[in-house]
Design a protein that fits this description.
114 residues; mainly alpha; 6 helices; 68% helix; 0% strand
């Protein structure tokens, strides 16, 4: 199953993965519900999605910021550490949120002083 892994979120990947598996095995009488119980999200995430993401980065394709945002800080760190040039400008959502809050506070102070 090939997807544009560099811009698909984990949940989107899981949904497509289950759909494709269902298409492949539905003639065998398996349901999507059975597939989901056989292949829970965590299993597909750790066994298929993360390794594919890493391989795509290794090939030189940059993972979208929105996808990196969906990973845990530990998972994100692996990409930022192993491919520093590719992700030099990436800021985690927590940092972007803090920068936004600081900017809003500064803007409000300026308005109050005028």
């Amino acid at each position: 199953m090939q997807y544009n892994i560099y811009n698909i979120t984990p949940k989107q990947y899981y949904k497509k993965w289950i759909h494709d598996a269902y298409q492949r095995y539905r003639e065998d009488g398996i349901t999507k519900k059975e597939l989901k119980s056989l292949y829970p999200f965590e299993s597909v995430f750790y066994n298929y999605y993360l390794p594919e993401l890493y391989n795509v980065s290794r090939q030189g394709c940059r993972i979208a910021n929105s996808v990196l945002d969906k990973l845990t800080p530990e998972q994100r760190y692996r990409f930022l550490h192993d491919f520093p040039d590719m992700y030099r400008d990436y800021l985690p959502p927590e940092i972007r949120r803090q920068k936004r809050e600081i900017y809003v506070r500064k803007t409000q102070r300026r308005k109050n002083h005028v």
